[in-house]
Fold this protein.
Amino acid sequence: MEEIRENDEYQELSEKITALQAELDELWDHAAEVIVSDDLNKKENIGALWAAFGEDVPNSRVAEVVDCHEQYPGRLVFNPETETVDYKDHVKQRKENQVRTDHRQKILERDGNACVRCGVSAGDGEAELTIHHIVPVSDDGSAEPENLATLCSDCHSSVHDEYGSGEVFYSTNTGFWQWVREGDRGFDPHHTQQNLDTF
């Protein structure tokens, strides 16, 4: 009998938690509609949300409301005194070490204008191609061609951690190319090395 009563209490508590979560979700949606403004850019809107709710709101929720990539909020740091956001130091460093436009085009051509892992190309509808630093800029990776590879936005997201810190899950250049070979395209890194002569 005691077990039945505990199950009933558990069920009742579970239902209350579900109802409260639904109320919180509704409150978040309403507040976000009021806070997010078309007059602000994405970074400023994220700052406004963090000023109102704190930084503990999951990046996925913030990104959904602001209409940005899920990793973008993780690249930012909030200053509670000024209620503003700025890029984290490693992101600023990465922006300073961006791939020049002419290099970007050569890397895209070298990699067949497609993601080296999955093979999706810019011509495949919504695909967005990114030039990835194999050794991250935060680890002093260069913008030299041998340290760059073309990835689609999905593969680029999966190679980085979910918090936008710039960290990658592999530890060596070989580890990166092994991960690439496991993809649908399985691009041959030797092909890439041969084409580096064109730079």
